[in-house]
Design a protein that fits this description.
Keywords: DNA-binding, Transcription, Transcription regulation. It comes from Aliikangiella coralliicola. It holds the Pfam family TetR_C_13. GO terms for molecular function: DNA binding. By secondary structure, this protein is mainly alpha-helical. It has one domain: Tetracycline Repressor, domain 2 (Orthogonal Bundle). About 75% of the residues lie in helices and about 0% in strands. It is elongated and about 60 Å long. The chain starts with 8 loop residues before the first helix and ends with a helix.
Length: about 190
Amino acid sequence: MPWEKNFNIDDAVDRATEVFWAKGYEATSLADLLQAIGINKGSFYNAFGSKKKLFTQSLLKYEREQRRDILAELESLEDPVLAINKLFDALIEQSLTDKDKKGCFLVNTALDLPNHDIDTQKTVKKGLKGSESFFERQIKSGIQTGAIPKTIDPGICAKGLLALLVGLRVLARGVFDKTSLMAIKKQAIDLIH
């Protein structure tokens, strides 16, 4: 008799993402995933193949639905300085309301990058490069409109903004309070003025 899934794969990936995000890849056990998804071991292997493959699906889905969608929405704003401001405001708000202090799944994975396989490393690097590219496009747009000084180097400044974004996401996991997170945002905005 062929195997039939009796659960929604997308929902299962979402539930697995929550576990991976909270615990990290290494600390997440198969038992954790089975409990979160609500399936047995056979169904798990039939649907996902392995913990590693499910982790990859989770990371890609998070990257697509969290980072890319948010940046695309901000990019539609006509004011690039406002877009950068809104991004940092949103990250601070998200961090302060995250009672579990999970941070960013992509950044959390980046912190453990040497211990991940090549595919995961590529996904993380592509995601972070996408954020850097967002900043660079906003800076170039701001230079064109006169909102950002022509003396700003878009590539260098974008790297600085990415570093501040990553730092904010790490420090917001319980080290920095709102005032300190706002200081990071101030530094980010100062970079483009």
